[in-house]
Design brief:
The protein starts with 5 loop residues before the first helix and ends in an 8-residue tail after the last helix. Helix 10 runs antiparallel to helix 11. The chain is globular. The strands form four sheets. Strands 3-2-1-4-5 form a five-stranded parallel beta sheet. By secondary structure, it is of the alpha/beta class.
């Protein structure tokens, strides 16, 4: 009984062919794609060699016009339907590692939407945050690569919340670093996004984390504007990069209460600055001719909302904001041997990431000279009304010594700082809740060590 339908007809046709015809059809099936590939390769390699010169791609020809036309079309399509990417986080004590993650996330799309986890969720999953939600929101909003901020987002990305992101907020991809992010039950916080194929991974910025910064402060107890004498041995160990706080405290002659506290050995990460990182953070724009250049300087240690408020008001005074970041040695001389918490390049990157800043002088001189004013064509020098106190309890930004030349030239102005937060404020918050932060650091540090010891892989940075 013969079959019917397309399959049977194909079988009958195949059997009706001779062996020679089958061979020719097989050769043709292979030869035609090969010939097409060879023709394409020859045309690519030989176009500029054999084609008339007027058809070569070069500026001023029709080929350049066509390429520009297609580029404009692509940009127009991206403007009408931009690729929206989402990154969430606590962003507690905003540092250059956070900023670099946001920079990489922005490179994954056209519009970067940041989800800010509320204080209640951080307390539930990690422990008490150092900065409150309002402070963290301001710090995220002023990062130059952030376009939108969503508040009140959950710590774990449930299927329901992901659906809200994809529909209400029109998110295309969820972004996170290659470092671990586990929920209290031990599961991956981004598991659902990965299963849906809507997850993109970026490289974590090594050498810094909020856990690391808290550890730096916990190992150097600060009393008012200076560190206690009995902590000097601990500070020496801290400066070498690795320290067991319990042992160092005993060596330093701390109290019996300090001896009885259980500590985890802490390893301080080493930041290795590169020229590429500076270029990535810099806007690369010079001041236009005739622009009013405003200069403000300082330590900018543990970059916080007080710094942001001062920079915002400083930028309002002119067209181009130039920021001078003082050297580690100058900061130590003014504020004590155990400061700054962040080194010069770390502090410079944090300042560069702020959207109000146009350019940074890395290692600016403490006293403003005629030469500095002339070299950078500075029109106005400003300072905030709120500043850190020196190691002797005096105002570390005393205008009579540092700004005397500016005052003589009538180009100095003090701007009123409504925000009273200082670096000392952040350090005191850590020390007042020391036990909670030590427990949080021990838990976070253990998970990070396990991950980087067994699961870490190379991820190319965007």
């Amino acid at each position: 009984m013969s079959g019917s339908g397309p399959h049977s007809a194909m079988v009958d046709w195949y059997h009706s062919l001779s062996q020679r015809q089958v061979l020719w059809w097989s050769v043709a099936a292979v030869a035609v794609p090969l010939a097409g590939s060879a023709l394409w390769w020859v045309s690519e390699q030989s176009l500029n060699r054999f084609a008339p010169y007027q058809y070569h791609y070069r500026p001023g020809t029709i080929t350049e016009y066509l390429s520009q036309l297609l580029s404009k079309h692509a940009k127009r399509r991206r403007r009408n339907a931009p690729l929206r990417v989402y990154m969430d986080g606590c962003f507690d004590m905003m540092h250059y590692g956070h900023a670099n993650a946001l920079r990489q996330a922005k490179n994954c799309g056209d519009v970067l939407v940041v989800g800010l986890i509320p204080d209640s969720e951080i307390l539930r999953c990690k422990g008490p945050p150092v900065c409150n939600e309002q402070e963290r929101k301001l710090q995220v909003e002023t990062v130059k690569w952030v376009d939108e901020v969503i508040t009140g987002v959950p710590y774990d990305l449930t299927p329901d919340f992901l659906e809200t992101l994809f529909t209400k907020h029109r998110i295309d991809y969820v972004i996170h670093g290659d470092d671990p992010c586990y929920l209290p039950d031990g599961t991956d916080a981004y598991e659902h996004a990965k299963k849906m194929g809507r997850f993109r991974m970026i490289k974590r910025t090594e050498g810094v984390s909020s856990t690391d910064i808290v550890g730096r402060m916990l190992m150097c107890t600060r009393d008012n504007a200076r560190f206690r004498e009995e902590r000097r041995q601990l500070a020496k160990s801290f400066s070498r990069g690795s320290v067991d706080p319990a042992r160092s405290s005993a060596d330093a002659g701390d109290s019996s209460q300090e001896h009885g506290r259980q500590h985890q050995p802490v390893t301080i990460s080493r930041f290795m600055p590169t020229s590429r990182r500076i270029v990535q953070f810099s806007s690369g724009q010079a001041a236009r001719p005739g622009a009013k250049i405003v200069y403000v300087d300082g330590a900018f240690d543990l970059f916080h909302v007080g710094h942001i408020e001062a920079l915002r008001k400083a930028k309002q005074q002119g067209d181009f904001l130039l920021v001078g970041v003082h050297t580690d040695e100058d900061v130590q001389e003014r504020r004590g041997p155990h400061l700054p918490i962040m080194d010069l390049h770390e502090r410079s990157l944090s300042v560069l990431a702020c959207k109000y800043v146009d350019e940074v002088i890395i290692g600016a001189p403490l006293e403003i000279s005629d030469d500095l004013l002339t070299t950078f064509n500075i029109s106005l020098v400003v300072r905030g009304s709120v500043s850190e106190t020196g190691r002797d309890g005096s105002d570390a930004n005393n205008p009579s010594s540092r700004y005397s030349i500016c005052q003589q030239k009538k180009m100095f102005r003090t701007i009123q700082s409504d925000c009273k937060t200082t670096t000392a404020t952040i350090i005191h918050r850590i020390l007042e809740n020391r036990a909670s932060y030590e427990a949080r650091n021990a838990k976070k540090g253990k998970s990070e060590q396990e991950y980087y010891a067994s699961k870490k892989q190379y991820i190319a940075e965007s």
